[in-house]
Write a structure and sequence with these properties.
2 copies of one chain form a homodimer. The first copy, chain A, is α/β, with parallel strands linked by helices. The first copy, chain A, folds into 3 domains: 6-110, no CATH class; 114-308, Rossmann fold (3-Layer(aba) Sandwich), CATH 3.40.50; 320-375, Winged helix-like DNA-binding domain superfamily/Winged helix DNA-binding domain (Arc Repressor Mutant, subunit A), CATH 1.10.10. The first copy, chain A, is built from 17 helices and 12 strands. The first copy, chain A, has a 9-stranded mixed beta sheet, sandwiched between helices. In chain A, strand 7 (238-241), helix 12 and strand 8 form a beta-alpha-beta unit. Chain A starts with 5 loop residues before the first helix and ends with a strand. At the A-B interface, helix 8, helix 11, helix 13 and strand 9 of A face helix 8, helix 13, strand 9, helix 15 and helix 16 of B.
Amino acid sequence: MSALPDDELLAWAYLARVAEPPAASVIALTAELGPVDAAAAIRARSVPAAHHAVLAVTQARADTDVAAADLDSAERVGARLVTPADAEWPGFALLALDQADTAAKGGEPLALWVRGPARLDDLVTSAIAIVGSRAASAYGEHVTGMLASGVAQAGCAVISGGAFGIDGAAHRAVVAAGGVTAAAMACGIDRDYPAAHTTLLREVARTGAVISEYPPGTGAAKHRFLTRNRLVAALSEATVVVEAGRRSGAANTAAWARKLGRPLGAVPGPVTSATSVGCHRMIADELAVLVGDVDGVLALAHPEGKAERGSGRVRVTDALDADQCRVHDAFPARGVVSLDEIAYTSGLAVSVVRTALAVLEVRGLVDGDGARWQLSG
Amino acid sequence: MSALPDDELLAWAYLARVAEPPAASVIALTAELGPVDAAAAIRARSVPAAHHAVLAVTQARADTDVAAADLDSAERVGARLVTPADAEWPGFALLALDQADTAAKGGEPLALWVRGPARLDDLVTSAIAIVGSRAASAYGEHVTGMLASGVAQAGCAVISGGAFGIDGAAHRAVVAAGGVTAAAMACGIDRDYPAAHTTLLREVARTGAVISEYPPGTGAAKHRFLTRNRLVAALSEATVVVEAGRRSGAANTAAWARKLGRPLGAVPGPVTSATSVGCHRMIADELAVLVGDVDGVLALAHPEGKAERGSGRVRVTDALDADQCRVHDAFPARGVVSLDEIAYTSGLAVSVVRTALAVLEVRGLVDGDGARWQLSG
C-alpha cells in the first residue's frame, strides 16, 4: 500500500487522527520532528516549547492510539494513507499560507486517505471541480451531467463532494463517460456518506478516487463539510458552481477557489429558480465568471486555448500501450508528418507505427490520410 | 397641440420627412437657419456652402410637401410633433456626439412624433428600457412581466420597442400595473405595427407614449428598427435585456446603451435556452451587469439607492464561533452524551468544550445538567 516503513506509516495514521483537521500545529511539529518523534512527543505530552499549541488540540485524543486499526480499516476498503512523504503528495502550499486561519477551516491537510487508483498529483494538474446544491433542480442536474461528461471527454478529471444533487450528478456523468472522477469527503473514506451514494462512491473509487483527511469511521459533521470544501478547491485547477442557493456549501467551495486564486465559474439559470440565486450573486459580484458550456468550463482552467488543454496529464492517452504512447509522443505539437518520420522519431518499425496510428486515429488523437498525419486539433 | 406658430410647426413637419432619419446635416442646417428658413432653403435647393451635404439626403423628397397632412394624420391618432423648440424636448446630446456615424444609424433625432400623455423630458429622467427577443420563451415573457410591473410599481416608466415577445410582455405588464410605458417605433406613430399589437399600442398611447421619428404612414423597415433602437436606449436611464439570441436586435439596443454610457443589465436564463445565449454572452464579456430581480433593475439606474440585499433567514448557529460550531456538530441528532464524549468527537480540549457548551446552552441550542448533554428539542 504505502512505500513508507511501518513505524512511519503508523505514526502518520496516529497524527492524522490525534487532532481534528486542519491542525496546523500538528503539521508544524511533524515537519520539525518527523512523524515518529512527533507522534511520540504528543503521546508523552512533551513537545518543544515552540509547539505548545499542539497540546490543546491533541488533548482529547492523544491517549487513543488506533492507528493500526485505521490502516486496517482503510485497507479493507482498498484505501491508502497518502502523506507528504509520498511521491504523489501534491503539496498544498496555497492552503499552508492560510494555516493560521483555523476559524475558516483553512490550512494544509496533514495527510489524506485515498481510495481508488487516481494519484493526487495527477488530479491537481488535470481536475476541474464541479459542485453545487444538494437540493438541485432537474435543470441543474441536467446541466451538470452535460458539463461533467464533456469535461471528462476532454481528458480532465472531475472533482466534487460526493453529495446529493449537483455533486452526485457530476460523479455519475463522469463514471458513465468512462472518465476519472474524485470525491472529497466530509467523513471517513470507509463511510459511504450519504448512504444512498454507496454504489456511486464505489464506482468513483474503482476508477478515480474517494479522498478524505478524516480517519476511517469518522462521521460527517457540519464543520467537516466546510473543511472538506477547501480540498475540493485545492485539488482542482478550476471550480465551477452549477447551482447554489442563497446560503450554500457550494458558495463556501467557491470562496475557497477564490482564496486560492483558482479560476471560478458559475452557471446561470432561471432567475425564478432559488437554486440559481447563489450563482447569479457570484456572477453579478464579479466573483465568478459566467460559464454555460463545456468550452467555457475548459477555458476557465486553460484560458490559453484548446490545444493546451490537459496537456500535462492527457487522460485519454493513459489507456495506450507503450508503442502507442511512443508513436503519440513522436508527433510535433503542430504540423504534418509522414509515416517514415514518425517511425524515425519514435524509433519503431514502420509496421508497428502503422498499427499504433490506427488505434490513435480511432481514439480521435490523430488525423491522417494514410501518408500524412497530425495531432487532432 | 403644439405651442409653436403654425409656420414653424409646418416647417418642422416638412424637415422631419424630407430626409430619412437620422439626418445630421438637416439638423445642422435647421440649427443655423431656424426651421422655416431651413425648409425654404431645402425646397429651393439653395443652401449655404457649408451645408452642401443636405442637398443629397433631401433630393428625393424635397419637392413633396405633405407637412400639413402629416400633422393632420398625427392629430387624428392623438399625436403631436415634439421638436427641440418645445419645453419637453429632452436633448440628445450623447446621440449628437455620434452624428457623423450615420452608418451605425446614430445621431440625434430632428423631432419626434409622440402619441400619448407622457412627456419626453419626464421619460428620460425616470424610464428604464426593457427589451429582448421577438422569439421569446415563456420564461422570458414571465420574467419580463415580473420586472416590468415591479419597475412600474416603483414609479419608473418602462420603455420598449412595441415588438412581439419581450417588448410586448414589458408593455402589457406595465399597462396592467397601471404604470407608464412608452414604445419607440420603427414606423409612423399611426401604424400600429405589428398589427396584432394594435390594442396594446392604443393602451400604451392612452397612458404613456408611442414615439417615432418617422412621419405618419411610414412603414416599418429593417434599417428603421436599428435606428429606433438607439432611441430606446437614449430615452431611458438604463437598459435591461431579458432574452436575446446569438444575433438579436436587442443586442443592438444594448450596444447603443453602452455607447451612450448608460447602465446595461442582462437577465440570465437556462444555459440550455437559445434565447438566453445573447444575455449570457453580454454578461460573460462584462458588457452587461447580471440582473435577476426588480431591485437589481432599479439599482442599475439608481445605484445610490441600492436596496440592501436580503440576507435571508438567519440561522441560530450562524452566530457561533468555530469552536462552538464544532461542539454543536459533535452532538448526535438524538440521545445524551457526556462532556468527554463531546471532547473526543470534536477533537477539542475539555475546557474549551465546557466553555462552548455554556454558550450553546444560553442560546438554547443544547440542554444539560453539567454531566450529560443533548441537543435542545
